[in-house]
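To assess whether ligand presence alters the predicted conformation, the chain was also submitted together with 1,3-dihydroxyacetonephosphate. Input:
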Amino acid sequence: MQLVTGNWKMNGLKSSLKEIESLVSGLRGRTRLPEILVCPPATLLQSLGPVIQGSPIKLGGQACHAKESGAHTGDISADMLKDAGASYVIVGHSERRTDHKETSSDVAAQAAAARRAGLSAIVCIGESEAQKNEGGTEQILAQQIQASVTADSLTPETAFAYEPIWAIGTGKTASLNDIDRTHSFIRARLEERFGLPGKTVRLLYGGSVKPSNAREILNLTSVDGVLVGGASLKADEFLAIIEGSRG
Ligand code: 13P
């Protein structure tokens, strides 16, 4: 089943709950749906619980600390996210790698913490514009796959998200050919690294996914879902993206 995920990033107040209410009512009665995940800021997780109850929507966190608890001011543990209603957590998003200097080995420790807490990780990888222009895309992706998660952190629901940094929030999307070629490369590395689980782990695309391009992206056989930023904030746009899924 495809996985359509909304990453709200640092957006959303209590008033945004109405977007999820609209999403819930827009989904009512629909069949052949993909798995649907919303990753709001952690402050909204608890209040979203009653809103999504009885709907197909699941909740996820956007990041977690590698430790279970302790003196880490401002951080959130995987157990806290689980306790607040999450079943997934995004790890290694490029914005975390940049803003918080998180390395792939930090990401691997966070993915392990997620697994211990009973969460499935969505592990983000992707090259910068400079790396792409230097022809370094495959090398950076291979390194990130090698170092950003260990085999014992995988669950049947674990996903990898290919998010080229130059496509995030820019309106530029990788071409269908590039997505397909890069996903095939990533899939081969995942199989090499993890064996059978590397064949089945879901591989999402992220980077300026919107209603106008979601269907063609989700129609690629190498794409098992999408990770959507800006267009996930509005119920009607997110719903249109969900409708583009193969289910
Ligand atoms: P945009 O969809 O806003 O480009 O963001 C992509 C992203 O970073 C999702 O995690």
